[in-house]
Every structure is written in structure tokens, then in C-alpha cells.
Amino acid sequence: MNHEIDQLSALLGQKLLAKNWTVTCAESCTGGGIGYAITSISGSSTWFKQAYITYSNEAKQQLLGVSAQTLNDFGAVSEQTVLEMAAGAAKLAQAELAVAVSGIAGPDGGSAEKPVGTVWFGFYVDGKVTALKQLFKGNRQQVREKSIEFCLSKVLKMI
Questions:
Q1: Is 1's pLDDT higher than 80?
Q2: For residues 26 and 52, is the Cβ–Cβ distance under 8 A?
Q3: Contact yes or no for 98/50 (Cβ under 8 A)
Q4: Sequence-separated (6 or more) residues with CB below 8 Å from residue 90
Q5: Domain ranges of the chain
Q6: pTM of model > 0.90
Q7: Residue in 128, 94, 87 with CA at minimum distance from that of residue 23
Q8: Among 4, 47, 72, 81, which is most buried by a count of CB atoms within 10 Å?
Q9: Which architecture does CATH list for 3-158?
């Protein structure tokens, strides 16, 4: 992880402690990178209890309650899917804050409609769920790292 991600994670911890909130993650293309960044901060067990790496569609359904209909109609990399991922993770973890990410890190898997670098983010903040899409340039590792950094930065602005 880079220094910026470490700083964002530490700041997130400070804000969560001040609010007496906990955070959870539901990750696909980042493969647990957000959870790793958060738990790299000493004392994170106070505000981070659990997370979900749901790389497959089956895992998204079984662990987070994403509907088969959503996945069939919109795909794993979609606004609808990350909204359901975030809400499902928040409910399971009983957390006030949840982040979800699903995307195409590459180098394969992209399409004209969803090119490599397309990443959807879902945010559950104290009962409200929103989603954002980003298109990142770079290789697989760069897309994943940019996704982690964006997610942490964005959620800090939301709380």
C-alpha cells in the first residue's frame, strides 16, 4: 500500500472513533485491499469488525444477499450490485458504514460497455445507500490501488 492510502485509513479510523461507528467492506475486484488498508492501522479493531471478499457472483448472493435477478439483469459490475453489496454488508456486520466495490481490473474482462478500469463503488452511510462509478487507467495493480484510494477518500468526505 502507498503512503496516501495509509494516511486515508488512519483518518478514517479517527473519524469513526469520534462518531463511535464501525465500518465494513464488501470487496470484489480489490480482493480485500480495502480491509487490508484499514486493518494496517493500529487500533483498528475498535472500529472494524469484519469484511467480505465476494469475488464470484455466487459469493455476492450467498454472503451479501445480492439478488440473482440483479446480477442477471445488470451484471456484477453495476450500480445495482454495489448498492446491494453495501446494504448487505452493513446489515450483516451491524455497521453504520459500509463500502462496496466491484469492477474490472484487467487486463481481460472488459467490453465496449464496461471497459477495463470500470469500477463501481457502493456506500452505506448511517442508513443511506449511494453509488458512484469511476474509470481508472493503468494495469491491474494500478486499477486496484486507485480503487482503494478513491474509496477511502470518498467515504471520508461522506461522513
A1: no
A2: yes
A3: no
A4: 24, 96, 97, 98, 124
A5: 3-158
A6: yes
A7: 94
A8: 81
A9: Alpha-Beta Complex (3.90)
- Max Cα–Cα distance, the chain, nearest Å: 44
Q: How far apart are CA 80 and CA 87, in angstroms?
A: 11
CA gap 28, 144 in Å, rounded: 10
Per residue in 30-66, pLDDT (tens digit) is: 999 999 999 999 999 999 999 999 999 999 999 999 9
Does pLDDT of 110 surpass 90?
no
Mean of per-residue pLDDT scores for the chain? 97
Question: CA 155, CA 100: separation in Å to the nearest integer?
Answer: 11
For residue 1, the one-letter residue type is M
